[in-house]
Request: fold
Amino acid sequence: MDDLVDVEIEQRSNEVVIARLTGELDISAAAKTGDRIAAALSSSALGLVVDLSRLEFMDSSGVSMLFSLARQVGSHRQQLRVVAPPGRPVSRVLQIVEFERAAAIDHDVESAVAGIATPQASPPPRG
Amino acid sequence: MSDLPGLFEVRVRARSIAYLFATGATLGLLTLAFPHSDEVRDVPLVILAAIAYLVAAIVWLVADRLSDWHIHAVVASGTAIISLANYYAGPGTLYPILYTWTALYAFYFFPLRQAAAQMLFLGVAYAIVLAAEDANMVVVRWLLAVGTPLVAGLLISQLLARLQRQASRRRQSEERMRLVLDTAPDAFITLDRDGCITTWNRAAERLFGWSEEEALGRTMRELIVPAEHQDRHDQRRRELIDADAPAATQHFEVEFLRRDGSRFPGEATVSKLEASGEVIVSGFIRDVTERVRREEERVALGREQAARAEAERVAEVVGGMQALVDAALAQRSLDGILRDLVAQVRGVLDAGRATIYLSGDHDRLTVGASTPGEHAGGEAFARRAAAARDGILVVDGYSLIGVPLLAEGDVMGVLVAGAEPPREFSSEDLTLLRLAAERVGLAIAHARVYEREHRIAETLQRSLLPDRLPELPGLEVAARYLPAASEAEVGGDWYDVIPIAGGAVGLVMGDVAGKGLAGASMVGRLRSAVRAYALEGHEGGRVVERLNRLLWTEAEDSQMATMLYVLVDPAASTVRWVNAGHPPPLVVAGEEVRFLEGEASVPLGVLPFPTYQEVAAPLRPGETILLYTDGLIERPGVHLDQGLTELATRVREAPRDPHELLDHLLATLVPEDGATDDVALLTLRNLPVPERFQVEFPAEPESLAPIRSMLRRWLHHAGADEFEIAEITTACGEAATNAIEHAGTGNGAHFEVSGRRDGPEVELAVRDHGSWRREREDDQGRGLDLMRTLMDTVAVEPGEDGTTVSLRRRLVRRGGDS
Reply:
């Protein structure tokens, strides 16, 4: 069967990479999806935006993937921002696992891109 | 008198004795003319000589009339005259030698006993003469005069007896032969070297009307050979006589002439014989008028029968070939044409076997179709016919015909027919098969071209239909695809089932107007596009609008397509559909059957920017939706409305099981000789939701999506709201993920998911058969955190053969209701 999740990568002005996820993210594709997003992020980029607004479902394996991305991005002194509109199942999961401790959560893609373009002290990596 | 017939005729014997008398008398007179002793008395001797001359003259004259007795008497009188001459001549003369002449005559001409009697008389007479003469050496002189001729005579007698027996036998043999020839049924004629008839038997007399007397000494030309055959007759006779072989034989049939001028066909067997240096031509002639007449009758009868049979056969052949060509032109499958052809050829030609070899690549021949059995060396023979580019007929005990099937100069294949003895093919059979091959070759060529295209298109089209439909929890789908019976063109029908995130299912049913290869390739593009747009989560109307754009901008020859796009949301028990010019889908709810009408829009590819509106309708648990292509309802002479009404009736009476429903529709709506157009059917049943469920899943990540889909649907019907459904599904998914990880990577491991309603609460349980490893990794810790946060209670119960995770949550709305 086709993968439940689809990843669309957008390179914006060579500084910000946007990864848009659609479908459902569970353990069947989480690791692969994480690898794809990581591979799309060049070392010269300022940061990564993971857009979850069109993701119908995400479980703890998806959360682990995001935490893993956050670690990688942080080790390269780059920024990670996650887009998750409130009121959706994915936001609820991020909230429960307190993902905002690892990366900023925005309501839409443009604010996330703007957040990366504006240099600020990156949040401390999760300890 | 004599026991054997005399060797010589009476005349010969009489004249011989007359010579002897005359000679004796002349010798006597000569002795008197020369000086002689005085004791010789001349006068009596002259008188005796005269008597002898007289007897000789009389015997000569009456020789024909003398009997054996007369001859005996003459011989005896001769002895008496010689004895008197000896007496009057006295001793010292040589007259006793005349006794020797007499004795030799007797032994030569008489049978032995009569000769001996003459000798006795002679001996006595001389003895008397010797006694009267008072001479010396009486005994010596007697013995010399009588003994010498006795011995010589006996020898002559023996020799003659033998010759006589041989002559007798030969005469008997000749008589028997004559008897045989005279009683022979066939005419027997012999000719001498000059052609004169020397034998003419009774049968010849009867056959030709000429008697033996009339025929002998004359020639066949004169009597029995018709004028126009005479040259040939002479030629044949000369050839026979000049032939090297001593006993050459000719056998021929020719016309002969009777004495009355009538003619008859005769069969002649003529031989040359050489007997004692003489050439004889002998021949038997038989009248074959009757035989010739019967043969002619038989030939005429046979010809008539053959003509009738041929006429019947030709009629049959023409009928058969007509049927064959009809079949070929009906554009049925190549296999069908070939099978028909070999069967027809075998029947029509009364052949033992028939095989069609088809030309392949690199001049290879493969068997396209064959009646049972194989031709020994048939392929080599077919190759010969293909190389000759013309029919070949071989009759060599086993009859074979090979005819190339030509189409526009190309050898499409070779038709080979074989017949076992006694059946033999004729050149007419070959002509017939050539005629048939001309037409059939063209039909095969068409069929081959068509089949190649058809096969490619069919393969392509088949590849565009789902191999198997996805398994969807709580839903059951079934599909059927029935190609048109005429196989005229591969249809552009397609259907698809697309699972979409969130538990929804997209159903697609489409029909591209172009058929064949072009149609199939457009189906391929539309199918890929609709999958992509659907997975992206676009609303139905937008999906169809994008497809229209694709068809409008990219299709050649202004291709068109009708299409239904139906999004089934089992959790909400609804369907949302977009109809682009397609026959309306149909929903079965209990006994009610309703078409999903309204907002039907133009087909794809007609307008550049049409808008397609999505329409929603309920599809409750237990209800079924049916999608189909127009091949199911369109039939010549039947109005579309009538087709739809009949469809509704058939659906109403059909079983509710999706597979049985489709089979029932195909059985009742498709004509027995097949559909005129392709028929595609797709149905989905929203299965009734149970109060409780227990389902086993394979312990692999791919099970998670179906579990979520199933849970969403079940929770919806259990009364959960959207928010609750998302949270409970997430929690249960975490438990399932744990179960999958615990089961390890072993194949065949399973785990169970069960659920039940318990008043205002729902209870879900995930039970695995692995060991609950207490390795507190982040993921699992997070998973457990999620479960505990999202559910009211979470219980992990390790058991002997696995772990059970129980999740409970009170539903707000249901709780409020109750």
Observations:
- DSSP finds 22 helices and 25 strands in chain B.
- Chain B touches chain A at residues 470, 499, 501-502, 531, 535-537, 701-702, 704-705, 708, 726-727, 729-730, 733-734, 737, 740-741, 778-780, 782-783, 785-786, 789-790 (CB under 8 Å).
- The first helix of chain B runs from residue 10 to 33.
